[in-house]
């Protein structure tokens, strides 16, 4: 039996911990991960170009590429790059939909449209990526501008027990939002990576 083709997963850094966990559980030794900076989410117009460069780097190294991003606010520019490069990505509009599945996410969003979502990663790194990343540490008056239309913070936890529960509760309090929690597990992340590993 021949060895599987090496696969390079080009991933959003916000998914790194979960991707590594899925790969370890599955034992896919032919799959490696290259993470791009999670700060790209604050500048989504830069994601497509960064992913394109990583795809070409993976090919130059003799690896098949798979992209562990959803659309992530790129407005379709990421999909245009992937179409041109002939590379697949994870399903969905963002990681919240990836973890919940599209049906449940639509239900959650309809129940409370004014919801700010956190994953395990975002809850752990709220201070750096949200509070300081949006300048709230320097300009606290911006909180109302950014979050004035939100009512609820929903923590979608991947691991069980939820590892960042205290941090997520604190984030909700700092933003003045009602706290809620739902355990999602890895959702479509695991099935998406399985497609990449066995293709």
Order of helices and strands: EHEHEHHHEHHHEHEH
Largest sheet composition: 3 strands, parallel
CATH architecture assignment of the largest domain: 3-Layer(aba) Sandwich
CATH superfamily of the largest domain: Phosphotransferase system, mannose-type IIA component
Q: What features would you describe in this structure?
A:
The chain has 199 residues and is of the alpha/beta class. It folds into 2 domains: 7-93 and 188-198, 3-Layer(aba) Sandwich (Rossmann fold), CATH 3.40.50; 95-183, no CATH class. It is built from 10 helices and 6 strands, in the order βαβαβαααβαααβαβα. The chain has helices at residues 16-26, 47-60, 77-85, 95-100, 102-111, 120-124, 126-132, 142-147, 165-175, 188-198; strands at 7-12, 31-36, 64-68, 115-118, 152-157, 178-183. The strands form 2 sheets. The chain has a 3-stranded parallel sheet, with helices on both faces. Strands 4-5-6 form a 3-stranded parallel sheet. Helix 2 runs parallel beside helix 3 (77-85). It is globular and about 55 Å long.
